[in-house]
Input
Amino acid sequence: MERVGEEPSVTVSPGVAWLRGLAGAGVAVVLLLCLVATRSPVARAIRRGEPISGAVIGTDLAEHAPHSDTLMVWLYRPSEGQLDVLSIPRDTRVDLPGYRFRRINEVFAYHYAQGRDPDAASLQVCRAVGQLLARAGAALEPSYYVQVDFDGFRRVIDRLGGVVVSVDEPMDYDDAAGNFHVHLATGVATLKGQDALGFVRFRGRSGDRGRILRQMEFVRALSKRLASPGILWRGPRATVEAWRAVRTNLPFWDLVFLSVEARRMTSQRVNTVLLPGRPRGATWEMDVERASFVLSRLGIARGGPTEIAPPDPGPVMEAGGEEEDAGGPSSPEVSAGPVTVKVWNASGRLGLAIAVTRRLRGAGFDVVEWGNYNGHQKKSRVIDRSGRFEQARRVAEALGLVSLYSDADPALRTDVEVLLGEDFRSTDVR
Output
């Protein structure tokens, strides 16, 4: 019998109690994120649409003086949802007052050897990057760094479930002393950590330039993976794994905010750019005028070169063959009209450049020159030459090509170059 004035007891099932607890934890996390967001400089920049810059420093496993095997500067523009990634060759020549080394990959090694402090060494790399780009008129010293060694890279890629890339040449190499082994066949493959590391480190016939191009392609493939629906359940664990695998001056919650932003980074929003230059002995010499032009296109340097050099003669045309007589004008002028394109056949298949030229013209592009390349290439590529990455992206989409990067040169007076390799599928080209 119930007593007068007493409320009947209510029994809460364990399932309901668990859901209430989960909801309470969710509310607590949201409130925590809101609090952190008010104090986080990264979150503030994202909210205001202000650019955020940083450097990715990939180091080898040398015990006493690891070198920066990979160096990329990234500039994220939240208001546009665009990510620019500038790849700096590891042998790029630097002249830093007070130091005797001459290559930028030695900066991390030298400062790490002084105090075994990877954070201090990473900051010195950022400073060296700032001084290098200042020669081209850019006031950009990366604010943040993410330093990862080979082991950390492998763990993060494994946690993501691998990355889909196209292997453009057979990769078979063993270096027992450096503990570097790679064995990959040509074709499209999903690469887990160890194979992905081999893919971005391998040089092969194409040398260091080819290695850099593969690294840039890997960045675009990684961005596609991060934006895929299948990554949702891997995302939180991958973020935690990344936090454990890297050294960075980004606080954990800032890394979380950037990870959330990474969901916007489809491959169409990522612009991969090569620092202009040329080999000079054992170093890579930055082309100051071209670099100034590229950096001005990225909005981080004032003006470009004051004069435009005569047009580059471009690839050597083969004697004879169907396409030799079909070449367009040798020094076209860039106009405000259709996108100007040059098409080079490096596949060894006769008539391919003409067929692709007709296809591009039918799509509204102005193909001003075409012909045979001076050698065979395995992989087809689209190269931005004007610093207007979107134009090259449109050409790539018209041809169904995924390998795309920027190597701008105003002297060429062309917007886009297309290199048709042996992998180009021409069944639908007439």
Confidence is low (pLDDT under 50) at residues 25-35, 303-335. The first strand starts at residue 52 and ends at 59. The CA atoms of residues 45 and 51 lie 7 Å apart. DSSP finds twelve helices and 17 strands in the chain.
